[in-house]
Amino acid sequence: MAKLEKTNLSRRYFLQGGAAVGGTAALVGLGAHDASAQNAIQWNRAADIIIVGAGVSGLSAAVEAAEQGSSVIAIDMNYDIGGHGIMSGGQLHLGGGNEHQKAANVKDSPDSVFKDWTRHDHHAARYSDRDLVRVFADWNVDTYGWLLKQGVKYEPGMQQSAASTVPRQFRTVEWHIPSEVIAPRRNRNGSGLVRPLAASARAKGVEIVLNTRMTKIIREQPLSGRVLGVAAEGPNGPANYQARKGVIICTGGHSSNVTLRRTFDPRLTEEYQVACSTYSLQSGDGEIAAMDVGAALWATANQTAEAGTAVTKTRHIGCQWGYASLVYEPDSPLFPKARAMGLTVEDFQNVIMVKENGLRFVDETKGNYDFFAACMAWSGDPEKLNGGGPIWAVFDQNAANRERWKTEPPYVDLTGWFFKGDTLKELANNIAGPYQRRKMDPAVLEATVAKFNAAVDSGKDEFGRKAMNFKIDTPPFFAAWTTPILHDTLTGIHTNTNGQVVDRSGQAIAGLYCAGESMGGFAQHGLARCIIFGRVAARHASTGKSAVSASL
Length: 552
Ligand SMILES: Cc1cc2nc3c(=O)[nH]c(=O)nc-3n(C[C@H](O)[C@H](O)[C@H](O)COP(=O)(O)OP(=O)(O)OC[C@H]3O[C@@H](n4cnc5c(N)ncnc54)[C@H](O)[C@@H]3O)c2cc1C
Fold this sequence. Notes:
The chain has helices at 56-67, 83-87, 99-103, 110-116, 123-126, 130-149, 191-203, 258-264, 285-292, 335-338, 369-375, 397-403, 424-430, 442-458, 527-543; strands at 45-52, 72-75, 91-93, 169-171, 207-209, 213-221, 224-234, 237-249, 273-274, 297-298, 311-312, 316-317, 343-344, 352-355, 391-396, 418-421, 477-481, 485-486, 492-493, 500-502, 508-514.
């Protein structure tokens, strides 16, 4: 994916366009000495609570806030709701002794949830902020029932996963209208979470404003006072949204923002694509805007704890976004952007992986963090020392036959993500993807394949690969994009147990909240933590307790 387009984090307080709230510029929450012309803000829209991002955490916050009696406007930069959540598998990690667990005879309690997710012997739990985990644990059972009340349905059955020592994972039922699932027929069960939440929010009076990107958080003073609202860019130009009680940042993390993601892991250069970014971006906008008004980051070790799905192995090869379970079929509204479904790999012994230099570097059948480290290791390009460069799965026609692959569109993307050659030399000469910075040397690729074929004969592989049954010797030969794909944001903005954003001196910033993948401190994969902390933030914001200006 190309670098995320630069956000317009404008410093202007006077923004034009649209009808101002009350028809005139408003001087909001300012002491007399600060009510100068330069701090006058023209508000275009106002609500008790402004939510930025209508994905999993944003929609959960919206419903909760409406239930608490707040008026709510949620803005989202995408053309539809749901964020990553609509593409998710809908696997919910909720326990604590809920009805689903009782039906499956699973004994659990909030204390057990807390203990598991603060375990020192599990990398996904080790670096957690235990105050936040305590809140999460205590909201599990209530959230299970709350989702049912919003119209979310659950499939039977439970699994045990990650740091949990008892089964706590079960799936939502996929949304029943295929055209609203975005990637239909591919178990995108998270659609059955976000569609009912959006319907419930709208029924409760929440206004969801789409195609509108938050560009700035507006605070009384750049680094002091309360947060008053946000500036955004919509279809009709810029507009300011006033939040009488609070702004809740729910922008879903930072993995689509190359510069920000490299703050946590410098290896994550531009060639790494992000799962779901065909649909919605993990823009990093929330983190950047919050930091601009003084917010601190929190528990950043979680991003590189080498647990969970920060980085994942590409299973659908030969297309730009080949996440393990996400496939866009030609009737998906996203297909024109995705351009190909990818070839689904059943057995990785059917391919070798080479870097842009044509050299193998790893046992291709692995998929752990050592595998990813090898993928992201220096490829030898003297002008690109960070990142590992593109990785190509190289295979022959026999492998395609074994896998029953059709090496043509709509399965593969011929615009830079899949190449063919009648000889290995021709294949190497043809490879010219957007991130292939140097031409692959045909002699190197030929030598790599010859060495691999010799290892098949001897049974001894230089990378210790055991599955060595098939040579690469039958033309035509193919190269399919198989560079690892990014998935979860596991760190972000510091919040306290009310979801209030905390600044660099440890003080809550009045009127500013954060939830979901943009929030730091608790790195459990996915939906459950996003739902719960969205609710927590909305519940506290609705009290209005954070709407009081701190001293300026
Ligand atoms: C393919 C896939 C499968 C997954 N499967 C599972 C699963 O089975 N179980 C699980 O627990 N988790 C799963 N996840 C993870 C889960 O979907 C996410 O953790 C969750 O959706 C994050 O919620 P969020 O509210 O933080 O962000 P999102 O749901 O992504 O929502 C963020 C929203 O913010 C909007 N936004 C961003 N920047 C701005 C801006 N400047 N202005 C306005 N709007 C903005 C985006 O457009 C988006 O709609 C999966 C993720 C993917 C990609």
